[in-house]
Design goal:
The chain has 413 residues and is an all-alpha fold.
């Protein structure tokens, strides 16, 4: 297939709609984080036990990333995308019919398992377009993914306040079914050569991780950034609902719009994937996040600082994610689903770790603990980069070369 025909298959309208679908699908994973109190009250479940639902959804999603997303290298991604969207819609609705909390946890697990279509859409588009446009277009799709994390929390709170948690699920299910019908008629065919065995695809994951240095590096960068990102966002509600702010949940939810603005402001980063030293842009993105946490630690009691940090932190996080996946999609076209699967598993494991760290560290050490934990995580990513790129050895080699040159000059003199 020639380049012109490839690009023609994905119109600007279709790419925009795919970005919106990515946002809505990812939002599935975050609606119930802000609706958890309402859900637990409905089923008379103590707050200490209600977190099982969020854990089940996250575990389901991680398993889906590991075992369902690689199916895109075996079967048509178009069919997988539509099927996963329909399954997500049905399961969202079934959660509203559950008669017990344990049943909603089980259905939530399968809902998370099926909500992987965004991670099928991105490799589908990237492997069916010309390489010169890949970084920019993938960046636009990733904007949808990143906004879904924030929109899920914002819309879950707003719609949930008006129509209850069941209303949120029903509304999301209807929207997804409408998009599934649209994609059935609008998505082009998947023209990438497929593998012959799913078993071989799964068995190829560890060797692929071992082989691709870029993949390993982006997993570390992504996991560290999403870990720090979740440390901030989970603790933000504690900070704003406590002294000196004492805000209600509605005001806390509005901060999600600042995060959205920050994510949109970082939309330029997709173009940077075509630069020669793209990993240095990754380091800059992590540096933006690192500095944000330092400022948070020094000025968290001032509202203007919290507003500034919410915006800038999302710029750095969104920039890092776009660069990571742009780099991944420059690797083998035939392995895109598997590469994306491995990256996203690492990414969300980092995010899950951040959620756990945030709750424990904030209640034990306050904002200073949040600052120290986040900066440490980001520094570990820097250390990994320095070690794997032999920065320390290079410096020693340069010193040795200089010493030898000096000795030789002395001898000649």
């Amino acid at each position: 297939m020639n380049r012109d025909l490839k690009n023609k298959n994905f119109s600007n309208k279709l790419l925009l709609i795919l970005s919106v679908i990515c946002a809505i699908i990812v939002a599935n994973l975050y609606y119930d984080q802000v609706l958890l109190t309402n859900i637990s009250n409905d089923f008379f479940v103590p707050a200490s036990s209600s977190g099982k639902l969020i854990t089940a959804i996250q575990i389901g999603y991680t398993i889906g990333l590991l075992f369902i997303v690689p199916l895109g290298d075996r079967y048509s991604r178009k069919h997988l995308i539509i099927l996963s969207i329909i399954c997500s819609a049905v399961l969202l609705y079934l959660m509203t019919l559950a008669s017990t909390f344990n049943l909603i946890v089980i259905i939530g697990f399968f809902m998370g398992l099926s909500s992987v279509s965004a991670q099928l859409i991105i490799p589908f588009v990237s492997s069916n377009i010309s390489s010169e446009k890949r970084g920019v277009i993938v960046g636009h799709l990733l904007t949808g993914v990143f906004l879904g994390v924030l929109l899920g929390r914002v819309l879950g709170g707003v719609v949930g306040q008006l129509f209850g948690w069941r209303g949120v699920h029903e509304f999301a299910a209807i929207i997804l079914l409408i998009f599934a019908v649209y994609l059935y008629y609008s998505l082009p065919s998947d023209n990438v050569k497929k593998e012959s065995s799913y078993k071989n695809i799964i068995l190829s994951l560890p060797p692929l991780l071992k082989k691709e240095k870029v993949l390993r590096e982006t997993i570390v960068f992504g996991a560290a950034a999403f870990c720090a990102f979740n440390i901030f966002w989970v603790s933000l509600s504690f900070i704003l609902e406590g002294s000196p702010y004492n805000y209600g949940s509605a005001i806390v939810g509005l901060f999600g719009f600042l995060g959205i603005a920050g994510a949109l402001a970082a939309g330029f980063s997709g173009k940077l994937t075509n630069s020669k030293n793209v990993s240095l842009w990754n380091l800059l993105a992590l540096a933006i996040m690192f500095i944000s946490f330092l400022i948070l630690g020094m000025g968290w009691s001032k509202l203007i600082i919290i507003i500034f940090i919410t915006f800038i932190l999302d710029v750095g996080s969104r920039m890092n994610m776009s660069l990571n996946q742009g780099r991944i999609y420059k690797l083998s076209l035939q392995n895109h689903s598997r590469l994306n699967s491995l990256y996203m598993v690492g990414y969300y494991l980092g995010g899950s770790l951040g959620s756990w760290i945030s709750t424990y560290v904030y209640h034990s050490f306050g904002v200073k603990g949040i600052t120290m934990a986040s900066c440490t995580i980001l520094l570990l990513a820097y250390i990994y980069y320095l070690i794997t790129n032999n920065i320390f050895n290079r410096k020693n080699s340069i010193k040795s070369s200089n010493i030898i040159s000096t000795k030789n000059e002395t001898v000649h003199q």
